[in-house]
Please model this.
Amino acid sequence: MSGAIINSIAYDRDGHRIAKVELPDTKAFLLAHPESFLWIGLHEPDAAMVNTLQEQFGLHELAVEDALCAHQRPKIETYGDTRFIVTHTAERNGSCIVFGETHLFISDRFLISIRHGPSHTYATMRQRVEARPRQLGFGPSYPLYAILDFIVDNYAPIVDDFKQTLHKLEQDIFQPQYKRGTIKRLYELKRELITLRLASAPLQDIAQELSHGQDDFIHPAIQPYFRDIADHCTRINEAIDALNELLTAAIQVNLSLVTVKQNEVVKRLAGWAALLALPTLITSIYGMNFEHMPELQFEYAYPTVLALTALACFKLHKTLKQAGWM
Model:
């Protein structure tokens, strides 16, 4: 069980560490220290560990079921005196974006974070929070803000990477040679961008609700911090929407350029077909087995027909070239 525990730390109302508390002892510790609160961080816990949390903190069974499934949409729900929050995390893995989930239980005496799938560790973020004991002394609401802000801040470099990748792909679009990989990568970017939008948009609503909520565990001094998260989400969502429109335009331009190039090829083929059809038409006339064809008796009929055929082909070629078909 202990392998999934990242940290289980108790803090006093001055924002200082009191002790490291084992999960089976958390309820007794909170009863013995009424002015303290717990911040527990878990990574992909098993059912036994989550059941222990449920017993110790009285978590609602529906929220516990969601925390175990780890395939939830971003949301915020209230179960008695506990809030249950689901967020989606994102990080870059090579050229792709991978998504995970963080589930949060918060009350006035505890904050529990459960990470599923790929996500950055919260260890460095916890250190930054502990370096600000005044804010940490306001209770679990400040660590909650820090986690949500950490998740949102990790969206920003991904959006910047999208911008750079799109700029490179735009250059490939206008290359003379068509690249199948370009349109494939554009589609992949659009799919990842939509998934990122589905992750970031609900987080804006969650932050706004926390900034205006009347929950006892959200300290009034911390509410402006959640408004700051909502503002960051707004900027990220606007950037994602702009990139989505650019990606749509890039895909359409790419397909249009391919269509134009195909039309050019068809026009050239049609032009050469016309040039070949003209001498074929003329020579096929003299392939007919008629007895009375006066020009057959003309001494210079053969070179004359060849010259007229060449002249007709030259004029047709000139006309097609001026029309852009050659």
User: Anything to note?
Assistant: The beta strands are 5-11, 17-20, 37-43, 75-79, 82-93, 96-106, 110-116.
